[in-house]
Task: structure prediction
Amino acid sequence: MDENLMLSEETISNKIYFIRNQKVMLDRDLAQLYGVETKRLKEQVKRNLSRFPTDFMFQLSKTEFENWRSQFATSNSEKMGLRYAPMAFTEHGVLMLSSVLNSDKAIQTNIQIMRIFTKVRQMLLDTTEMKLDIAQIQKKLENQGKNIELVFSYLDELTEKKKMQCQEQKLVIKNNQMLLQ
Result:
């Protein structure tokens, strides 16, 4: 791939948002990455709407848009063309974009984006596996803690029995001594 077409992993990763419990990319960010106007990207999507079911792409609600705007957009967002709620594309939606945008840059950018989505998914899986491992360790530690308590309880009982036996032996010795006198 041509070096000047390469985008940094960080550039792409910073444009992946978590909305409606899904990783998505917004139309404006994708248009920028593909080197096309947002208007052109939206036109292609609208011409091929049957390729973008709701699990591939959705329009941000007014509340979601306001939240996104307040968190990520600049103060002059009105001038930047951010008057309308953007389209959000899931991983599958981003993949489908490559079939409606036919430029070399769009295809190469899509490949990079798919690789990043794959890395993000793998990181989430790795994190989940680590959480499960930690939970198993915690469970084992809890069980070991209970076992240690049980051992100390037995030790306490044995210590008490030994004390009782010692006291009984002392008593027997004392009684024997009194009998001998």
Q: What stands out?
A: The mean pLDDT is 80. The radius of gyration is 34 Å. The first strand starts at residue 16 and ends at 19. The chain has one domain: 3-132.
